[in-house]
Specification:
Blueprint lengths: L4 H13 L6 H9 L9 E5 L4 E5 L5 H8 L5 E5 L16 E5 L2 H10 L8 E4 L5 H10 L4 E5 L2 H13 L5 E4 L12 E10 L4 H5 L1 E11 L7 E7 L5 E8 L17 H4 L5 E4 L10 H10 L4 E6 L5 E7 L4 E7 L4 E6 L4 H14 L9 E4 L3 E5 L8 E5 L2
Helix pairs in contact: 1-2, 2-5, 9-10
């Protein structure tokens, strides 16, 4: 018995008991693929204001396996280059690659409705663990995976070879797909995208499925599942909440500089009908991204300690600034569009419709647009994103 075999069986049993794992073939893959092989050289554990490096070589084997088979997402890279073997003390940094929590990994693979003959394109190889699960499920020749980061791709490829899967591991921009191996029956993305690239639709067979997290904020994003039609369009729904790192080609630059200067000249000022704090909740945040897809939400504090909230849309050179007296909020807006007007209109209509959850949202993708809707009868619950 391999050292990690009990942990693999424990994890599979746990996910099955939660109703996440239902496929016998996927359960077999979970019980076979050694997850710890995909975490070399180590991981970073979140300690609040710093990340503590933990490596396999520097950790007792039982503790390492406990970490490897936890139900948490494990950060494997910071700031686009730093790995746990390169530092000896806790460090600050921004996660740029990770091993996604097993509940999310398994639930997404289950959502693909795989059968033995399917050919899959995976966008975002990461550690390669989910790649290995699908290789075990489908056979290594039926899985193509693409990773934008050369170092991450090399580590994943080495791990896959170590556990016996010589699959198609590519380095490149996953937003472009991989046409040489197309067409695919399934496309699965382990990164978030602002919108589903039409290249993925084109590279998928009619009747095939594309599964991807959509949205550009760190929260308030949704898992889209669409089925490709004969005419090159795709239709489906947001099937649940989902959170992944943004595809690097689409990652937004954080808003910086003097926020007071950026909001000095407003075109309008009024009482806000809703508190901007609702944007810190998942569903309102998702709706805000539908109503104002280029906007970023920024939290700040005034000199007296009172909260400030902002929306900035760099492409449309627009802003909304929120100021509170402790009881109500005032919104100041400037630029080419009134960002809060658009968002507030959607949020009010959503409340009036009974505040349905994210899985009420339908999605249609064409070559020129993404159309989201909750209720086709309400123009305030219908959002069309035209592609430039």
């Amino acid at each position: 018995m391999n050292d990690s075999e009990p942990e693999r069986h424990r994890l599979a049993a746990l996910l099955a008991s939660k109703g996440v794992l239902t496929s016998p073939l996927l359960r077999e893959a979970l019980e076979t693929v050694p997850c710890e092989q995909f975490l070399h050289p180590g991981v970073f554990l979140d300690e609040g204001r710093a990340w503590r490096p933990v490596t396999a070589l520097g950790t007792a084997s039982d503790e390492w396996l406990k970490i490897a088979y936890s139900v948490d997402t494990l950060t494997t890279q910071l700031d686009g280059h730093l790995t746990a073997d390169q530092v000896g003390e806790p460090v600050a940094g921004v996660p740029t690659s990770s091993s996604t929590d097993p509940t999310t990994v398994v639930s997404m693979i289950e959502a693909l409705d795989l059968t033995a003959e399917h050919r899959v394109l995976e966008i975002g190889t990461g550690t390669g663990y989910s790649t290995a699960l699908m290789c075990h499920y489908l056979g290594e020749d039926n899985v193509t995976t693409i990773e934008v980061d050369p170092q991450v791709a090399a580590r994943a490829d080495a791990a896959l070879e170590t556990v016996g899967y010589s699959t198609w591991t590519m380095t490149g921009d996953g937003l472009l797909g991989h046409p040489r191996r197309a067409p695919y029956d399934r496309v699965i993305a382990t990164c978030a995208v602002r919108r589903i690239p039409h290249t993925w639709i084109r590279q998928t067979r009619p009747g095939g499925v594309v599964l991807s997290t959509v949205g550009s904020w760190p929260w308030g994003t949704g898992l889209a599942k669409v089925t490709v039609g004969d005419d090159g369009t795709a239709e489906g729904a947001i099937i649940g909440r989902s959170s992944f790192m943004q595809a690097r080609a689409q990652a937004a630059t954080p808003v910086a500089g003097d926020l007071a200067a950026r909001t000095a000249y407003a075109d309008s000022e009024r009482a806000a009908l809703l508190s901007p704090l609702v944007l810190e909740e998942w569903m309102p945040a998702f709706l805000a991204q539908l109503a104002a897809p280029g906007a970023q939400f920024v939290r700040a504090t005034d000199g007296d300690g009172s909260p400030l909230r902002y929306l900035f849309d760099a492409e449309r050179e627009s802003f909304a600034e929120f100021i509170t007296d402790g009881e109500s909020w005032t919104v100041r807006q400037g630029g080419s569009v009134a960002l809060w007007d658009d968002i507030e209109r959607s949020l009010v209509a959503w409340h009036d419709a009974g505040a349905p959850d994210i899985d009420a949202i339908r999605l249609r993708v064409t070559m020129t647009s993404h159309l989201y809707r909750i209720d086709h009868r309400s123009p305030s619950l219908r959002w069309e994103h035209r592609l430039a």
